[in-house]
TrEMBL record, chain A:
Highest taxon listed in the record's lineage: Bacteria
Cited CDD domains: Rieske_NirD_small_Bacillus
Chain segments annotated as transmembrane: none
A molecular-function term among this protein's GO annotations: 2 iron, 2 sulfur cluster binding
Coiled-coil regions, chain positions: none
GO biological process: nitrate assimilation
Identification of the protein by name: Nitrite reductase (NAD(P)H) small subunit
Keyword hit for DNA repair: no
Domain Rieske: 5-102
Source organism per UniProt: Sphingorhabdus pulchriflava
Organism taxonomic ancestry: Bacteria, Pseudomonadati, Pseudomonadota, Alphaproteobacteria, Sphingomonadales
TrEMBL record, chain B:
GO terms, biological process: nitrate assimilation
GO molecular function, one term: metal ion binding
Protein's recorded name: NAD(P)/FAD-dependent oxidoreductase
UniProt source species: Sphingorhabdus pulchriflava
Pathway the protein contributes to: Nitrogen metabolism; nitrate reduction (assimilation)
Classification via Gene3D superfamilies: 3.30.390.30, BFD-like [2Fe-2S]-binding domain, FAD/NAD(P)-binding domain, Sulfite Reductase Hemoprotein, domain 1
Entry-linked PROSITE patterns: NIR_SIR (PS00365), PROKAR_LIPOPROTEIN (PS51257)
Keyword field: 2Fe-2S, 4Fe-4S, FAD, Flavoprotein, Heme, Iron, Iron-sulfur, Metal-binding, Nitrate assimilation, Oxidoreductase
Residue numbers binding siroheme: C683
Highest taxon of source: Bacteria
Length: 112, 818
């Protein structure tokens, strides 16, 4: 049976208030974020506006500000905040024994 | 000897004995009871080990149940003999001594095992955990011999150990992997305050520090961090976490997750075996504090001997016991969708409070410095009370909000007594402020000059404003605050950083009462810059507060790739440099090479992962970063000047190169461009640059405040000077003035318009000494900041951040990153 969760390594590879990326061969690249409080979230690494790489934005609270045109995107819902409208898919994440696990099905979605 | 059913308890700790107490209280005669304990002593209060270590208590003080309790209740205590096996079919247990005991009901309360990080040297004598009396004994023994101690783990336990050891006169260093202390209980701001306070007490706290190895010949001599640092130590206390002790239950075939699975009555997958305490998992949760254990023990006893009531899980709160430091945390403080943070920072009292409200209910709280209201918030949280009525005054605590007296901040200040202190810096009371207002001060500025309240650090500005409103002066402040996280202007913030010697972002946020826990994408980069400008020699850059371009030292482009611009001094290059650039373009598959408006070459389409490698290649060819991405000196554009041009009066190219060599690498409020033209024909377009030089027969005309961007602005003439050196000195002084006084993200054009050309002239032209002093500060800062960021990063600092964390391939399982 294929596991539901994918282990992508220890949490401490993520800089606090930063992000790193996870390419999916044949699918959409994923951005893994870590907040000031150590919470970890994952979104498809594509701003709903013009596909800015969200992994490169400034993380504050539970939002990330896109590096291209400053849309604010919620790390929890993937939704654009404020006046802007749009949404980017969220990948479920959990931490287990210091490792980051991401939802396999959601991560592989859109893969040929 | 008795027909009563036999209850055997494994674990003579907090939960095991408490469960027995609860059972006895309901029906003292129901069971014959035997308790096995691995430790050779009676039941004691484990949470008092810290005061014991600190020398505040003795063992007698922390015993919960002495021998008389066991005797009186007919309990047989088998101390110092651990249970090694459970036979569920025969319903017996076996102990290490060989003793076999049969049971009717078995209770497992084995607690947790300390987690030992698997580094080389972890088994050396002198590596201690912090869990029981023996550990404390070992620590005390080491402390008697004196010397250095390293505590690995900056959580509750680690900090208590560190505190105890430093009270015992050891020199203590705490190593913590995460960027802030107690990150699971405290948010970043409170964690930072805690670190600051502990350092003030002489402990060394290293956050973001990862242990590579514990070294020593035959015993501990020190530890080595992954970054190569070594810290000598005669003991190492490992307090990095605990794991439910489930080995025994697992071997017996009970259902186990992270802990032993139990139902609401603490019954395991075997109906005759119960489990309680830290070793269990209930409804997906394991607990590491005593309060939930008490709830569990009650449910266990109810289920076993009385009416089952059923355990429903616990919400936990934490209080740090470390003497003199008040820290409290409860519930979920991570924020999130629909959550609203209410933050109060009172810099003068050293207080930080954050209450997280979701849908009119309190879901979490973090308090530092004043934890008096902790229990009240915790109560609101547990009872899930609707706080919409008291929301506005919630953060002021129970006295204001819960007393029912008032629900708004104006009433709150109205309720203050006349001698309540408003402004801590200047010692101004409410009475004095009110007197000043009734004496005619109708605005914040008038109050500031009238009685000094809010005139220094300004953290009481909100209170003064409320007092003004109370007195009927409802006036908006004319100047705009820096961002929505604060009521201070850029200028206020810069002033406070220097006056109050604020050194790091969390300190600024605390001192100036920021209303958000970690700022926003607009104030953080500004604060990082202001601190760097104020303290060039000591500022540690906060990478996560920089815009991506500066973080990656390259320009992000619309497709998410980057472009890279090597520096070409004064716009001059060589065939070798061009060859190296061409090679790099081929090697990294650049998709375009473009000459920029600033006379440099821009290499487009470079992948984030390839950045360190292309920098290394360009560095190897002698080139450094062009800072084309930065709020920094970009380029110095030049014309060919007297060397080649038939009109040229001076060596504009040479001066351009000198200027660039002096100014490169300097961070600014915004991008900064310079040009040097060799004659008034101005081929280098110096009159639309931040700083422009036009060479003339008799010397150099210096121009400032030009901008070729959205709002085209020609420069103003600052002055004329006679020599190259003067041109350079004026340039340095002008840049420094701009760096020290402009708002972040102001180019020089709007700044000069705001402060006026006359002002700049008085500072740079009229005041010779001031000019020299500004130039001196510029060069001082440059001595620290003029570093090629590409070289640093290509050499490996943070190189991993450019790499993917892992990669997913179809049907393959991913491994961790390298
Ligand atoms: C230094 C320190 C400070 C703490 N401070 C606080 C605090 O301030 N607030 C708070 O709420 N909590 C605190 N805690 C946590 C608290 O002590 C624990 O949550 C609590 O003790 C757990 O109770 P327990 O009975 O599950 O485990 P324990 O109290 O650890 O008891 C388990 C017992 O089982 C014994 N045992 C294990 N295996 C066997 C075996 N096979 N055979 C026989 N015996 C066995 C062990 O020797 C141990 O005595 C602190 C803990 C420590 C170590
Ligand atoms: S600015 Fe004057 S010196 Fe420079 S290239 Fe133009 S004409 Fe020649
Ligand atoms: S692409 Fe993200 S804001 Fe435009």
């Amino acid at each position: 049976m294929i596991a539901e969760w994918l282990d992508i390594g220890p949490v401490d590879q993520l800089p606090a208030l930063g992000a790193r990326t996870l390419p999916v061969q044949g699918g959409e690249e994923i951005a893994i974020f870590r907040t000031a409080n150590g919470q970890v979230y994952a979104l498809i690494n594509k701003c709903p506006h013009k596909h800015g790489p969200l992994s490169q934005g400034i993380v504050h609270d539970t939002t990330v500000t896109c590096p291209l045109h400053n849309w604010r995107i919620s790390l929890l819902t993937g939704e654009a905040l404020g006046e802007d409208k749009g949404c980017v898919p969220v990948i479920p994440v959990k931490i287990d024994g210091g490792s980051i696990l991401i939802g396999r099905r959601e991560a592989l979605q859109g893969m040929a | 000897m008795s027909e009563r059913p036999h209850l055997v308890v494994i674990g003579n700790g907090m939960a095991g004995c408490r469960a027995v107490e609860e059972i006895l209280a309901r029906d003292a005669g129901k069971f014959r009871i035997t308790i096995f304990g691995a430790e050779p002593r009676v039941n004691y209060n484990r949470i008092m080990l810290s005061p014991l270590l600190a020398g505040e208590k003795s063992f007698e003080d922390i015993v919960i149940n002495g021998h008389d309790w066991y005797d009186k209740n007919g309990i047989e205590l088998v101390a110092g003999d651990s249970v090694t096996a459970i036979d569920r079919v025969a319903k017996t247990i076996a102990a290490k001594s060989g003793r076999i005991e049969s049971y009717d009901k078995l209770l497992i309360a084995t607690g947790s095992d300390p987690f030992i990080i698997p580094v080389p040297g972890k088994d050396l004598p002198g590596v201690i955990s912090f869990r029981d009396m023996d550990d404390v004994g070992a620590m005390l023994e080491a402390a008697n011999r004196g010397g250095d101690a390293v505590v690995i783990g900056g959580g509750l336990l680690g900090l208590e150990a560190a505190h105890g050891l430093s009270l015992r006169n050891m020199k203590v260093t705490v190593i913590h992997l995460m960027p802030t202390l107690m990150e699971r209980q405290l948010d970043e701001a409170a964690g930072w305050l805690l670190k600051d306070a502990l350092e003030g007490r002489g402990q060394t706290i290293l956050t973001g520090a990862d242990t590579a190895e514990i070294y020593g010949e035959g015993k501990v001599e020190g530890i080595r961090l992954k970054d190569g640092r070594e810290i000598p130590a005669s003991i190492v206390v490992m307090a990095v976490g605990i794991r439910p002790a489930t080995a025994l239950a697992k071997e017996a075939g009970l259902a186990i997750g992270r802990g032993i699975h139990v139902d609401d009555n603490m019954v395991t997958s075997d109906p005759d075996i119960l489990a309680v305490g830290e070793c269990v998992e209930h409804d997906g949760n394991v607990y590491g504090l005593v309060a939930p254990l008490w709830d569990m023990c009650r449910s266990l006893a109810d289920g076993l001997v009385a009416e089952p009531k059923g355990y429903r899980g616990s919400v936990t709160s934490t209080k740090l016991k470390v003497a003199g430091l008040d820290v409290f945390s409860a519930g979920d403080f991570s924020g999130g969708e629909g959550c609203e943070d209410i933050v109060l920072r009172d810099a003068t009292r050293g207080v930080y409070k954050r209450v997280i409200v979701k849908g009119d209910k309190v879901v979490g709280a973090v308090l530092y410095g004043d934890t008096a209201d902790g229990n009240w918030y915790f109560d609101l949280l547990k009872k899930q009370e609707d706080v919409s009525d008291i929301r506005d005054a919630l953060i002021f605590g129970q006295a204001f909000a819960g007393g029912g007296a008032s629900a708004n901040p104006i009433d709150a200040v109205a309720a203050l007594s006349d001698d309540a202190e408003i402004c801590g810096c200047n010692g101004v009371s409410k009475g004095q402020v009110m007197a000043c207002i009734s004496g005619g001060a109708g605005s914040l500025d008038a109050v500031r000059s009238g009685c000094k309240a809010s005139a220094s650090c300004g953290s009481c500005t909100g209170l003064v404003e409320n007092l003004l409103k109370l007195a009927g002066h409802d006036e908006e402040r004319p100047v705009k605050p820096m961002c929505k996280c604060t009521s201070f202007t850029h200028e206020d913030v810069r002033k406070a950083i220097v006056e109050k010697e604020l050194r790091v972002i969390p300190q600024v946020m605390q001192a100036l009462s920021w209303s958000t826990p970690d700022g926003c994408s607009s104030c953080r980069p500004a604060l990082n810059y202001y601190l760097l400008c104020a303290w060039p020699e000591s500022h540690v850059d906060d990478m996560q507060s920089r815009f991506v371009n500066e973080r990656m030292h390259a320009n992000i482009q619309k497709d998410g790739t980057y472009s890279v611009v090597p520096r070409m001094w004064g716009g001059v290059t060589t065939p070798d440099e061009l060859r190296a650039i061409a090679d790099a373009c081929d090697k990294y598959k650049a998709r375009m090479v473009k000459v920029t408006g600033g006379q440099r070459l821009d290499i487009f389409g470079i992948k984030k992962e390839d950045l360190p490698a292309i920098w290394a290649d360009l560095n190897a060819a002698g080139m450094v970063s062009g800072h084309a991405y930065g709020k920094a000196l970009r380029t110095v554009k030049t014309c060919v000047g007297s060397e080649w041009c038939r009109f040229g009066t001076q060596d504009s190219t040479g001066l351009g190169i000198k200027t660039e060599q002096m100014t490169w690498g300097s961070w600014m409020p915004h991008k900064f461009k310079i040009a040097v033209s060799g004659c008034p024909r101005n081929c280098a377009e110096a009159t639309i640059k931040d700083f422009g030089v036009i060479c003339v027969d008799s010397g150099y005309e210096l121009h400032i405040g030009g901008n070729g961007g959205i709002h085209l602005r020609g420069t103003d003439l600052l002055c004329k000077v006679a020599t190259e050196q003067e041109a350079l000195d004026y340039c340095a002084a002008f840049i420094q003035l701009y760096r020290e006084e402009a708002r972040y993200l102001d180019r020089t054009a709007p700044w000069v318009e705001r402060v006026g050309l006359e002002y700049v002239k008085t500072r740079i032209v009229d005041d010779g000494e001031g000019r020299a002093e500004l130039a001196r500060r510029f060069h001082h800062a440059q001595s620290f900041l003029q570093k090629d960021p590409w070289a640093e990063r290509a050499a490996g600092s943070e190189a991993h951040l450019h790499q993917h964390i892992a990669e997913i391939r179809p049907f393959a399982v991913v491994g961790g990153a390298a």
